[in-house]
Q: What sequence folds into this?
């Protein structure tokens, strides 16, 4: 008789089987077909030219051979991040910066800092699908507030205020949002700040795509680094800023009332893990400089692909691209002649094109497909042409 399986935490999904889309991807690759993958989110696999010698030389810093742990990050790394904000017009003190291994780790730290088990955080819908899992791992509940689309995206503040409850501890803002590409506007930020200040809850501003706006705007808020009215945390990192996800380095900036008390406690949490390696911290000033060339290539690629996508859809097309201000994704609204899952499965089975369904990002209605603008140009052009021919 076989022994019973051990009991695992209910915070983990009970069913780990792949979904039908994943199964078809595997089958398509198994038969040797070329997949025109319009979901690429890894810049190191997207054909960009990296300054390899500069990056590798930066990682050869002799300081990498000694271990002198600092929970918030070594001073030169924090100063480099402060300089990164200064270049964007934000006066940030290095003492308000904590170096993390990733924005995912920063979320985990913040949920530990702000929440008791069973407390709630509000997250936007549609948005990045990782929030619920990250929160669940910390025994935190997720409630959603909707973004509405009427030619542009905006926060539904009536719904957001209705979602705030006695156990709400933070409101997550993704700026610009992934996948909608929408930035928060100054009037929206004023109202959001007033809500948070009035209820004594924090703002968590995920700003990893802030460098990837498609056009300037005087009404747009690109960072909450200068927040003064509500306790605010800004997240970013090398993965998007420099196109270097493999080096696992992010940062968490704290601002607003109660900032020092939060920083003291975040350092205690970070001291428990000491997760960020010395080599990447020592190299961070040089990596941010070297990443500028990669960032420029990404900006050019995403702008070109978005232009091609818009030009490919004629006035009579039954499909349309929803308005996008920044980021790496485009949302394509397609006819509701089949479900989003059927759209994705049929495009892959019949056209060898891979896209993401809107329900991956919790779109409230159908039918939407999400395309990565990071995709290499030839692949993106052919993939879009195949979608339109369908």
A:
């Amino acid at each position: 008789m076989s022994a019973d399986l051990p009991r695992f935490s209910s915070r983990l999904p009970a069913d780990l089987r792949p979904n039908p889309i994943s199964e078809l991807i595997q089958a398509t690759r198994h038969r040797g077909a070329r997949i025109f993958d319009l979901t690429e989110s890894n810049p190191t696999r997207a054909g960009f030219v990296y300054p390899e010698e500069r990056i590798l030389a930066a990682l050869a810093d002799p300081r990498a051979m000694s271990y002198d742990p600092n929970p918030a990050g070594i001073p030169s790394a924090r100063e480099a991040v402060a300089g990164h904000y200064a270049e964007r017009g934000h006066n940030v003190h290095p003492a308000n910066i904590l170096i993390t291994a990733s924005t995912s780790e920063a979320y985990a730290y913040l949920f530990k800092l702000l929440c008791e088990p069973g407390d709630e955080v509000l997250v936007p819908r549609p948005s990045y699908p990782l929030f619920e899992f990250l929160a669940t791992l910390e025994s935190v509940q997720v409630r959603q507030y909707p973004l509405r689309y009427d030619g542009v995206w905006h926060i539904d503040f009536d719904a957001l205020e209705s979602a705030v409850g006695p156990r709400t501890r933070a409101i997550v803002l993704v700026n610009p949002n992934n996948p909608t590409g929408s930035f928060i506007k100054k009037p929206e930020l004023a109202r959001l700040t007033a809500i948070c200040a009035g209820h004594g809850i924090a703002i968590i501003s995920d700003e990893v795509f802030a460098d990837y706006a498609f056009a300037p705007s005087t009404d747009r808020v690109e960072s909450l680094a200068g927040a003064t009215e509500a306790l605010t945390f800004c997240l970013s990192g090398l993965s998007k800023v420099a196109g270097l996800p493999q080096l696992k380095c992010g940062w968490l900036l704290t601002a607003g009332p109660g900032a020092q008390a939060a920083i003291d406690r975040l350092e205690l949490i970070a001291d428990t893990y000491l997760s960020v390696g010395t080599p990447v911290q020592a190299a961070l000033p040089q990596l941010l400089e070297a990443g500028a060339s990669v960032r420029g290539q990404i900006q050019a690629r995403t702008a070109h692909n978005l232009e091609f996508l818009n030009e490919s859809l004629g006035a009579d097309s039954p499909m349309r691209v929803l308005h996008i201000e920044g980021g790496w994704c485009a949302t394509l609204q397609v006819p509701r002649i089949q479900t989003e899952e059927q759209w994705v499965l049929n495009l892959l089975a019949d056209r060898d094109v891979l896209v993401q369904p809107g329900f991956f990002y919790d779109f409230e209605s159908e039918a939407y497909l999400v395309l990565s603008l990071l995709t290499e140009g030839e692949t993106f052009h052919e993939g879009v042409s195949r979608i339109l021919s369908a």
